[in-house]
Design a protein that fits this description.
This protein is mainly alpha-helical. It folds into two domains: about 40 residues; about 190 residues, MetI-like fold. The chain has eleven helices and no strands. Helix 4 packs across helix 10. The termini are far apart.
Length: about 270
């Protein structure tokens, strides 16, 4: 009985599986080392070792923040909030039809329109809002309009992806019940699908607005206006106390927007 129990001892992996796992880990370590060598090939390590000293020096110059600079940040802060809000609204207007075209259960053409809608979502998500703003500033010139459109274009992928997934996950029972009454496609959407998707839609929209406030705060670095423009100006003249004040305003704005977003999503969902 003792020998049999030893022979039947449970093992998590077979010997071959264990060897495969170890080889996979060895390959991952080798790949990591290789990537690290490529990334650090042109690194000047003197500057890396000197970085703590430089960071401490800049930190001492940044404190205390220049409180008298706060009144000059109120209007750029208002521009940043408007940029985030209008950009979110623009993104919603573009994302809703794209989401319905991308969802399997609502698209009118699974062979043409659905792949096109998915491509729009992927293209929007693959390009950062800073890149969108940089391109739009080069095309349209600097200003808030470029920032609003950049935020909108970036929001399409985020809202569209989450929304079309929510559409595909709706309960099919109400849909089948409405179809059984002889309702058309538009009526099925209006009475069976949209009511189920609305809570997710509002939650996604508010969540994206919260994210867009953070992104809008730095779009001025490429000429799109708002707090980022003040930050760029202060960095150019090495006005470190002003930079600290701007960063504190951005931090406070993000904290407030996070609180508002959480409260609204809690009330909706």
């Amino acid at each position: 009985m003792t020998d049999a129990s030893h022979r039947d001892t449970w093992r998590r992996h077979t010997q071959r599986q264990g060897l495969t796992i170890w080889l996979a880990w060895l390959g991952l370590v080798a790949l990591t080392v290789w990537c690290w060598q490529i990334m650090t090939r042109d690194t000047i390590w003197f500057f890396v070792t000197d970085a703590p000293t430089q960071a401490a020096d800049i930190g001492s110059r940044m404190w205390p923040p220049r409180l008298s600079y706060l009144p000059e940040l109120l209007w750029p802060l208002w521009d940043t909030l408007n940029m985030a809000t209008l950009g979110t609204m623009l993104g919603i207007l573009m994302a809703v039809p794209v989401a319905f075209l991308a969802a399997r259960n609502t698209t009118p053409s699974a062979l043409v329109l659905r792949p096109a809608a998915l491509f729009v979502i992927v293209a929007s998500r693959s390009i950062n809002s800073l890149i969108w703003a940089l391109l739009l500033v080069a095309i349209m010139g600097p200003g808030l309009l470029a920032g609003v459109i950049a935020i909108g274009l970036r929001s399409v992928g985020f809202i569209g992806k989450l929304l079309y997934e929510a559409i595909e996950e709706v309960d099919s029972v109400p849909v089948e019940a409405v179809i059984a009454t002889g309702a058309g496609r538009a009526q099925v959407l209006d009475y069976a699908i949209v009511p189920q998707v609305l809570p997710a839609f509002w939650g996604i929209s508010v969540f994206r607005w919260d994210i867009n406030i953070r992104e809008s705060a730095i779009l001025g670095l490429v000429g799109a206006g708002g707090l980022g423009l003040k930050l760029q100006s202060s960095l150019n003249v090495l006005a470190w106390p002003q930079v600290t004040m701007i960063l504190l305003v951005i931090l406070a704005t993000v904290v407030v927007s996070e609180w508002v977003s959480a409260r609204v999503r809690k009330a909706i969902i």
